[in-house]
Structures are given as structure tokens and as C-alpha cells.
Specification:
The chain is an alpha+beta fold. The chain contains 13 helices and 21 strands.
Length: 459
Amino acid sequence: MELKINLNRIKIESLEEFEKYGAGYNNLEKESVFIIQNGTNNAEKLIEAIKKIDISLTDHGEPSRLGYYRTHLLDSFIEAEDRELYLSMYNDWKKCIDEGLSLQIKLPFTFENSLWDAAFKCAFLQLSKEYSDKMKTEMKLRNFMVIMFNWIKLYFPKVFLCTRTLSQFPKLVYVGIVRTNEFLFFRLMALCGCDVFCINPYKKSEIKWDNISDIAQVINENEPVTLKIPEYDREKIIQEYEKKEHQKESSAGVSSSRELLNDTSRTEQTALSYETLANLASSIVMINVLNENGESFATGSGVLVNDNGYILTNYHVVAGGYSFAVRLEEEEDKYYTGELVKYHSSNDLALMRIQGSERKAIPVYTGIPLVRGQQVVAIGSPLGLFNTVSDGIIAGFRKFEELSMIQFTAPISHGSSGGALLNLFGQLIGIVTAGFDDGQNLNLAVDYETVTKFLRGFI
């Protein structure tokens, strides 16, 4: 088995699209993107987009699911002892190249996952051989390899934060002059599964390499970037986020459960009838999980959360699939897709997309905290019985490690996973995840706050 990285099969035309682009990993294949934007059409808009992606993708004090890093400069300073080490590594590397051996040197960074590490070494060998074939002098080749070793040591640990499992691929944004060395280093990162977006402030490229557009997606815009780009300050972003969360918690804490039940904002809306709630099943889908031969081996449920065909489901529903057949109520034809936009294995959430659907999305709840005893409705496809509706109440709120979940009593069965847990106003308050076979109606859903964070940028 080996990890395969496919570059640039997904077209990205802006930093905003890059922010929303998901991991795209399935069955040991990762769809990565490598974009270089020269200049800009609107410097102020670009800076706002950079600030937005910093806030959106920075890990807010939780274990990072993907990893995100932004920089404007790759450090060229090398400590004397490191240079001696890199020169020794270069000599070992050159011996491997000259004798046609596989890469047997120890690189300055190691992926904990052996398949990932093998892909890293393969990508490094490929890139370094290409550079070696182009260089006419030993000195240029040696200097290039020393710089690559140093950048791997400095930046791979900042970008690839979790390398144990093949589920947490990072994103990197670089705003600065992109020369040949930077271009090749970022290409190496992309060949290791990192999605890379480089913004060259000037309209003209300084990369001295053939067929750049065959390697990276190149966006040429009209004007140079003349405004100062803000520094990326991860700690400041986390502190501001935690401050806002603390203020929200303090504000919510002044009300008791009884006051929440009597809150007028909860009664401003009129609860929908069960008949009306059942009609929302048209926005709940059944997912057939297919193997590489196109055969269905499992089913689950999903919820349309965006009018453009984005479907939220459980990660455990889609994790083993090669592709997916999605069925919508009252439609005979199925929608086939392999587009897994993003996922979070720890939160058991995944987002896929189908093309051509005109169904309306289920709105995600954003109101005051839920309370125990509140009535709920679950919609899913248990045991393949398409869009079954059941009702119950919130029985409690549970936390498993860092994952917040809603315990509810509406009956579910296998196949309900990924379905919708709704309040009586037709709003999504959770994604049905699990039930306890040994207990009656002891069921769990990933709560709406976790869902909202996961869907940031998509709703």
C-alpha cells in the first residue's frame, strides 16, 4: 500500500475558495492544491481575505484537526552545526542518486505514519533529482539541498502538526516573493498532502523553472500588492477567540434553566406540527457507501446544510468509502460523488458535495442553550428504511473527551447515523451519531455548536 497525492485536480480561483476547500482524502488518495497568485485585483479585499482565513483556520485552543500556518518569509539563516549536518546529508543523498539507490538518508523531519513518511521521501527524491538534472554546477546543487534540509527542519513541524493518522492534512498560506527555491519547497509540501496558496506581491514571477503552470495553478492579476500584509499571530487569534467565548459563557451563565425555559425568545416562534417537520425529510438524504468496484457495502444518512449541495454526515459513515451514491426523497436517480470536502475524525463529522441538487438546506440552530426535556425529532434511514421520522426529548448533555453530545430519546437504529436531530422549529440541533444497543432509546448526536464550528465558511 502507498499514499497517493494528486495535485490540482480541483480548480481553485481565489483565497476564499482555498479557505473552503476541504482535505479531499479517501482510500489512501489525497487531492491537494498548489496555487500561486501573482499580484492582485484588489489589495484591500485580499488583506481582508487573509485576516478571515487566519481566524477561520487557526486552531482555537483545541487539538488541531488539519493544521494551518501563514508566513511571509522562509528563514535563510543556518546554524554552523546544522550546516555541517546538512552537508553530510547531502553527501549521503548524492551517493544514493549516483548509484541509483532508494533514499536511505534520515531527513530532518519524520512522519509518524509510515505510509506518509514513505510518500514524503518519494516526493523529496523526485524533486531533488529534477533539480539535480537542471543544475550545471555542484555548488548550486549543494546549496539548494542544504536550504531544503533547513526549511524542512524549520517549517515541516509548524505545518504538519499531526502525522500519526492519515486524516489531518494541513494548509499553508505564503505571502511574499516566490523564487525558484521557495517554489520547489512549497511543491514538496503539496506533494506531502499540504494545500498551499502562495501570494507573490508582484505581477511578474521570479521563478526560473519550466512548465510552472503544469505544476501549480497560476493566477495572474492586474496590480502589485502595495498594502502592508499583517503578521500572522496565532497566539493573539487564540486569545481573542477565548475572550469572546468567555464573554458568551458569562452572559449565558446569568440565567438559570428555569429562566431559559421561560425566555421569550424561545416562544417568539411557533412550533411546527409534526406533519410539517416530517416534510423536512426532503432535505435529508440516504448515503450508499461504495467500494472501488462501485458496490454498496454500507448505508447512512446525511443532511443538506447548504443550498449548493453540501451534505453533512458522520465521518464514520463515509470513512471506508471509495465513492458514494446519494438518494434524495421522491427522486429515482441517485447522485454519485467522490467529493469529500472536509472531515474531522475526532468530532465524527464529514462534509460531502453533490452536483445538480436544488433542495433547500436545513438551517443550523444558533439560539440560546438547549435544555433537558426539550422535544426533538430525528430523521434518518435506519436499516435502509428511507427517511424515518421519530420523536422524543433531550435526555441530557454528555461530553466524551472534548466532544459535546446531546443524549435524546427519539428511537434510531443502524443507518440513522448522519441523520438530523431537529428542534420543533425545524432547525438542526445535532447530527445523529450513535445509539447504545444495550439500552432503550439511549441515543447521541453531535451538538449544534460543534457542527457550527465545523461548517464555518459553508453556511
